[in-house]
Amino acid sequence: MRSRMDTNYMKVAHIILTYTNPQLTERLIKRLSHNKFDFYIHVDKKYSLEPYLYLQQYPNVYFIKDREDVRWAGYNTIKATFKCIKEVAATGKTYQYLNFISGQDYPIKSAEYILDFLERNNGKQFLEYQSFEEEWHEAIPRITKYHFTNYKFKGQYFLERWINRILPPRRIPNDLKPYGKSMFWMLQIEKALYVVDYVESNPHLRRFFNFTWGSDEFVFQTILMNSPYKDELVNNDYRYIDWSAGGSHPKVLGMEDVEKLKASDDLFARKFSVNTDERLLDILDTF
């Protein structure tokens, strides 16, 4: 039996979904540099890979080859995530955890702290979730109405309104009870693959998700909360996110947030912009 402190056992793949600032991604990688951490970068297919290629100079950095055209709140985000998971699994390397982050995230704990956290909690799955029916009522229209967010064509919003006016509310297949909240997670690789396999082996479910809104915030939660792994789930993704600005986007963090970040038990924070003050990241590197 392996001990908790056997660091030869725990290995983590960080999946970074990005399209913004290669220099911010570089800082994230340098901050998380550890021989037990690998980094898999998915650059949105709409953007050139060229500005990111210099990151290959760092050890344990790889690029996802089968890239996806990611659309905000569209199902393509899930397709991109699934591609990342499958490419990581196909390497044949042994990873205990996958950590899913974006290019606008940044660690607020050291690599050693994060590794120790996962060692101490090995066997648990970390993602934020609420029941649509009991808690997250405002999310119900995401699945009961048809959404063409994943597409771009003339008249799409008119057609969306017309279809939702004449057709009955949609129902999620397989009698699944919907759960969701945040798109970020830390999962054991076999649990992430379970979600991929479940969705891809149920074409009717994949078609259903394709016409929802913000599926990246509920696909993983829904599948896992309706799975044999439900009891392993911890309702916390350990991300510091400030929604005080209102709307569908979190506040861009700044120097005024330093004390809150320092006091947080979270492992990562978001979001940071391409114009983030370098002093803020310098301070976070000391945590």
TrEMBL record:
State where the protein is found.
Endoplasmic reticulum membrane; Golgi apparatus membrane
Keyword annotations of the record = Disulfide bond, Endoplasmic reticulum, Glycoprotein, Glycosyltransferase, Golgi apparatus, Membrane, Metal-binding, Signal-anchor, Transferase, Transmembrane, Transmembrane helix
Return the InterPro entries for the record: Glyco_trans_14, XYLT
Gene Ontology CC terms: membrane
One annotated GO biological process: chondroitin sulfate proteoglycan biosynthetic process
One GO molecular function term of this record is: protein xylosyltransferase activity
In Swiss-Prot or TrEMBL terms, this protein is called Peptide O-xylosyltransferase
Matching entries from Pfam families are given as: Branch (PF02485)
Bilayer topology annotation: Single-pass type II membrane protein
Q: What is its main location?
A: endoplasmic reticulum
Source organism superkingdom: Bacteria
Protein species of origin: Mucilaginibacter robiniae
